[in-house]
Design goal:
Helix content of chain A: 25-40%
Distance between the termini of chain A: 34 Å
Number of helices of chain B: 9
Largest sheet of chain A: 5 strands, parallel
Strand content of chain A: 25-35%
Oligomer: heterodimer
Radius of gyration of chain B: 19 Å
Number of strands of chain B: 0
Structural class of chain B: mainly alpha
Radius of gyration of chain A: 17 Å
Strand order of the largest sheet of chain A: 6-7-8-3-9
Number of helices of chain A: 6
Order of helices and strands of chain A: EEEHEEHEHHHEHEE
Number of domains of chain A: 1
Largest sheet of chain B: none
Shape of chain A: globular
Largest interface: A-B, 34 and 29 residues
Number of domains of chain B: 1
CATH topology of chain A: Rossmann fold
CATH superfamily of chain A: P-loop containing nucleotide triphosphate hydrolases
Number of strands of chain A: 9
């Protein structure tokens, strides 16, 4: 099993006329880092920057596997991500969606891999198109998406949003299992929503337009 | 997990196959494209018929009308390649796992195959309804292939460019006009030549050059157009 590390160095993000956060730094080899803060504090933006979906205004993100720095292209599959604004193709089934994302990523998953992944989030029996899924089922599929490409680092933004008690147990088990061998970053509005966090990064209150630092 | 890593074309083909599966399951979009083509063909044949021009005197008019039908039939679908990904929120997952150039290639390929399907049905129907004679079918096939690829790659690239902009439909029309007119003019000229059986190759070479330049530009700028 490869060892992985994610490191944020002096990350800063500003939108025009709207500074969001600055000087965010951390490093994680394994275990769970919880990013906690109220709505609008920049958690989702930070997670997207870590995932390579947004570019920071300043600072860098380093992802290493076995001590080797990964390129931006390698990080697409090495960093698993899910977030509340991740959507799936409504006409396709859960299996077809995951199969497609695996193929287009260049890492096709076998039928058994996908079945096991869907079983892990309690969607083994979900056969219809995603447009008929409930909010909780879509959230479970987002979690499965994060683990699809056998990542070295996992980032889950609001992983328990809309998920029932069974789903929470399934997500907690996946996170605990992953955190034993890799860095897992979770983001939520309340600390209680994040199971077994070993480190906490707390964001300050709602953005005031004045800029702020995490504490 | 499979050990064999698919290459660029396998990944692009996955995007093309996914778009095809979506369109076939939704049905409405494809039905509207072919309904538009059929309606345009019927109206054109009805409007041109009463003039009573002999077929040999109509080659310029027919070539222009054919491309109007092909262009506007395809235009109902082409701009939506990337726009739909943003509207449904699926673009985020796609950007996470694949570079823009792979997605652009797959979507351009789907648009090209859709254009060819429209052409395969429309051109014979056009020929029958308007008694349009093509003396060089090979020349016409070359025009449709080159013109179709140029239309597909440019429209798909522009779709990526405007997908996350406000007023994206208006923006697409404004930006596409100066880029697609230089494609449609040699396509019409080459169609006239194919119809008259006097293909000298000049408009086809212009089309090929346009396609090459557009494909290179799209390849180099795909990441800028669609990724953050």
């Amino acid at each position: 099993m490869a060892s992985a590390r994610i490191e944020a160095i002096a990350l800063e993000k500003s939108f025009p006329g709207r500074p969001l956060f600055a000087d965010v730094s951390f490093a994680l080899d394994r275990g769970v880092l919880a990013i906690v803060g109220p709505n609008g504090s920049g958690k989702t933006t930070l997670v997207k920057i870590l995932a390579g979906l947004l570019t920071p205004t300043a600072g860098t993100v380093r992802v290493e596997r076995d001590g080797r720095l990964l390129s931006a292209e390698e990080r697409r599959s090495a960093v698993g991500w899910s977030g509340p604004d991740l959507a799936f193709y409504p006409e396709l089934t859960a299996r077809e969606n995951l199969d497609f994302f695996g193929r287009v990523a260049g890492r096709p998953a076998s039928f058994e891999d996908i079945r096991s992944l869907l079983g892990g989030v309690g969607l083994a029996e979900a056969g219809g198109p995603v447009e008929h899924f409930s909010t909780g089922m879509k959230q479970r599929l987002r979690i499965a998406f994060a683990f699809l490409l056998r990542p070295d680092v996992v980032l889950l933004d609001e992983p328990l949003s809309g998920v029932d008690a069974d789903g929470r147990r399934a997500v907690a088990a996946l996170v605990a299992d992953a955190a034993r061998t890799m860095p897992v970053v979770l983001a939520a509005t309340a600390r209680e929503e994040l199971p077994d966090a070993t480190e906490v990064l707390e964001f300050a209150g709602r953005n005031t337009g004045q800029g702020k630092r995490y504490k | 997990m499979s050990e064999r890593r698919p290459g660029f074309f396998s990944r692009a083909w996955a995007v093309c196959a996914k778009d095809a599966a979506q369109e076939l399951r939704r049905r409405v979009a494809i039905a509207s494209i072919f309904f538009f083509a059929a309606t345009a063909l019927a109206l054109v044949s009805y409007a041109v018929g009463p003039f009573g021009l002999p077929p040999e005197a109509r080659s310029r008019l027919d070539a222009s009308l054919l491309w109007v039908i092909l262009f506007f039939s395809a235009a109902t679908s082409l701009p939506r390649a990337f726009v739909r990904e943003e509207e449904t929120g699926t673009g985020l997952g796609l950007r996470k796992v694949a570079p823009g150039v792979v997605v652009l290639a797959g979507k351009a390929l789907f648009n090209f195959l859709l254009f060819l399907a429209i052409a395969v049905l429309s051109v014979p129907a056009f020929s029958v309804l308007l008694e349009w004679q093509v003396r060089s079918p090979a020349g016409l096939a070359a025009v449709v292939l080159l013109g179709g690829w140029g239309l597909s790659i440019v429209s798909t690239f522009l779709s990526a460019l405007v997908a996350r902009a406000g007023q994206r439909n208006v923006l697409f029309l404004v930006v596409s006009f100066p880029l697609l007119v230089p494609l449609l003019l040699p396509a019409i000229a080459a169609t006239i030549q194919a119809s008259e059986g006097a293909v000298d190759g000049t408009p086809l070479r212009v089309l090929a050059a346009y396609d090459g330049a557009a494909t290179c530009a799209a390849y180099l700028l795909a990441a800028v157009a669609w990724e953050d």
